[in-house]
Amino acid sequence: MGRFRGLMIACTALVLVAACADAPTGPEGGGPPPDGLTITVGQVAEPLSLDPHAVIDQPSARAIRQVYDTLVDQTDTLELVPGLAERWTQVDDVTWEFEIRPGVSFHDGSLLTGSDVVFTLERLRDPTTFAPVSFLLASVDEIELVDAMTVRITTVQPFVPLLTNLAQTATSILSESALTAAGDAYGTTVVVGTGPFRFASWEAGSEIVLERNDTWWGGDVGPERLVMRSIPDAGLRAAEIEDGAIDVAYALATSDAVRFRDDTAITLAEIETLNTAYIGFNAQKAPFDDVRVRQAINHAIDVDVIIDEVYQGAGVRASSPIGPQVFGAHPDLEPYAHDKVLALDLLAEAGLADGFSATLWTNLNPIRIQIADIVADQLAEVGIDIEVQVLEWSTYLNDTAAGEHDMFILAWTTANADADYGLYSLFHSSAFGHAGNRSFWSNARVDELLDLGRTTADPDARRDHYHEAQEIIADEAPWIFLNTTIESNATRADVTGFVPHPTGHHRLFGLDKE
Question: Which of 132-136, 289-293, 428-432 shows the lowest per-residue confidence on average (mean pLDDT)?
Fold first, then answer.
């Protein structure tokens, strides 16, 4: 089995990203349930912050989605619908006007205005904010207040993904006055949104408690209290929902999901996500700067074994960075064939017939550790000695962003279901590091195609640009493409109203108990 060393700290997470949500229509059936309903959710890691501009990780986004609203919402079928903007108009190819919904209150009682929207979006794209997802507004030229409740956004050139980007948790609308008053405390001890739940408390390393916003503009909110617990160990999450200690469990291990299919006390909610798991190379470090080495490793690894043994078959083999539900996905790419002879030939061509040594990083995620172990064993068969290193989550993100790794395991959620989000931040030369491109690989033609994809209005032409980009990426192999994940969530059988979202950012205001 693989060789391990590193920092074993109970801090785990899935991907990177940022997010969409169901349109806030409120649960069916009249008024809220009796006071006292508490829903407890077990998720894979603790959020880093509830400041939408400070984070890019999944656990943070899942909590942020409960507290804030966005101008545009994206339903669980990925349809764009009005959110805090009750309507919008495209004035011309580069100009959009958004009419802000009147009468919406922040959790501190102040009224939402267009000024808060301008403040929020300007803060996101301000370089001094250091927002890891500022790329969502990278093509914006000007944001201006037309009147108290109308905001105009002008882009440098046509920017097709604008509406989907405005549905992401990173573009959640903030209260200018609350954030300014809180200063550095914002996001941890002070959190103010307009969403269905208001921030109550945060016990570091344990849980975040949210309380029902009885004046939410979007309708009735079911739970009086929402407790979001960080339970990094998938087996413990399964045990706690089995014992009734939690009501909802995110991201179960496949073995537990299979076991729960026959458990009448538990309801499974499985969904094919917008998330692609991958192993990345640092393409600026030898020998991974040689495309033949990257291709050789792709041929040396049997991804089907990983899907069968780690995911027990619950995953769709990936041949591209974006899954089939994403606009612009390439349906005809073939995954790398498992071929050890070809792998050895490519290594010999690269002058590495005797093999080499390298490190493979992961965080303390049991699934990723299993993958790393299998990869180490398979690469040993072609003379590559892999040392697996396990790092604490925040260190892992910071050090891979700094390019200190050889190889690493991560995943990415194309949260707006558009290829721009899934390709630009991961493969454009302007996105090295925290913005997403931890492979530090670039290609001038891919840069050109991704820029064209952002600015081309015709959907067929956009699709062609993204298909060509994916063909180059697949051939150049900055990644080992693993699988589009199937996420297994579960609720206690008496919990109703849970609808999983393809992004993983499940909206929880409609939950109830029978």
Answer: 132-136
The number of distinct structural domains making up the chain is 2
Examine the domain organization and report whether 372 and 463 are in the same domain: yes
423: Cβ–Cβ under 8 A, 6 or more apart, which residues?
321, 322, 328, 450, 453, 466, 469, 470, 473
- For 57-102, the pLDDT digits (tens) are 889 999 999 999 999 999 988 899 999 999 999 999 999 999 999 9
Let me know: does 94 contact 155? Beta carbons within 8 Å. Answer: yes
Q: What is the CATH number of the domain that holds 147?
A: 3.40.190.10
- Do the domain assignments include residue 266? no
Task: Quote the DSSP letter at residue 507.
Answer: -
pTM recorded for the entire structure: 0.79
Residue 367 sits in a domain of what CATH number?
Answer: 3.10.105.10
Mean pLDDT, the chain, whole residue set: 91
At a CB cut-off of 8 Å and minimum separation 6, what does 150 contact? 97, 98, 99, 100, 114
* Whether residues 478 and 434 fall in one domain: yes
Q: Verify that 122 and 69 share a domain, yes or no.
A: yes
What domain range includes position 144? 45-230
pLDDT confidence band for 285 (50 / 70 / 90): very high
Residue 403 maps to a domain? yes
* Claim to verify: residue 223 and residue 284 sit in the same structural domain: no
Do 74 and 80 contact (CB within 8 A), yes or no?
A: yes
Average pLDDT score over residue span 233-261: 93
Torsion of CA 263, 264, 267, 271, to 10 degrees: 50
The per-residue pLDDT for 230 is: 94
H helix or E strand, kind and range, residue 89: strand 85-92
Contact 166, 143 (CB under 8 A): no
Distance CA 386, CA 226 (A): 43
